[in-house]
Amino acid sequence: MTETAPDLTLDEIRQALAPRLARHAAFDGWSAAALDAAGAEIGLPPGQAALAFRGGAVAMIDAWFAYVDRTMAERLPGKTLAAMKIRERISALVTTRLELVDPDREALRRALSILARPAHAAHGAKLGWRAADAMWRAAGDTATDFAYYTKRATLAAVYGATLLAFLDDESEDFADTRAFLARRIDNVMRFEKLKAQLKPDPDRHFSPARFLGRLRYPVR
What b/e string do you get for 129-154 counting C-beta neighbours within 10 Å, with b at 16 or more? Predict the structure, then answer.
């Protein structure tokens, strides 16, 4: 980056430190020590980086996950995803996120542990929703009705479960996690297919207006 540390805005400091923080959090936790160590890499004096992370550990984790959101979209632009089927897009997006956090798996473990605390559970859910929304947007989803919410809720659940499987995965190139993800997506796709089959035919659905109309004008 061309700017010197004193020239950076707080938002720019957060973006610059996000990936660096994860590396230090693996050893120092999501702490002031990790923050100072990351800040030193871009020339910030001790304590100054904290100005950009007034929310403490949760703010640091939030910034790291936002970095993952941005980098995922950069690595898989729309023109790349457009050639894939929808399940392939989602699989590629989740897998890319896993590849991004893989070097900092211990930092991820510590981050999820913090977000699982009752005091931070709401923020953790918000970050899960944001990740799902980022993936669906990258996949080209344009839903604005109830499907907008169900898609994101479902993907957030799949992604969360996949992250937990990933943390304990010791297989080469996290092959076991990839297989786990494939099974979860299969389950979702089968459910969506069944739901579509069971969806009532609107022409056969009871309509009070149509019923009253037939009382007035009987079908001959």
Answer: ebbbbbbbebbebeeeeeeeeebbeb
Phi-psi region of 103 (alpha: psi -120 to 50; beta: other; left: phi over 0): alpha
Q: Give 42-83 pLDDT, tens digit per residue.
A: 999 888 899 999 999 999 999 999 999 999 999 999 999 999
Q: Where are the alpha helices (H) located in the chain, listed in sequence order?
A: 10-28, 32-41, 57-75, 78-81, 86-101, 105-115, 121-138, 146-167, 175-198, 208-216
Q: Which amino acid is at 91?
A: S
Residue type, position 50, single letter = A
Q: Which long-range contacts (CB under 8 A, 24 or more apart) does 143-147 make?
A: none
- For residue range 69-80, list pLDDT tens digits in order: 999 999 999 999
Query: CA angle, 125 as apex, 120 and 127 as ends, to 5°?
Result: 95
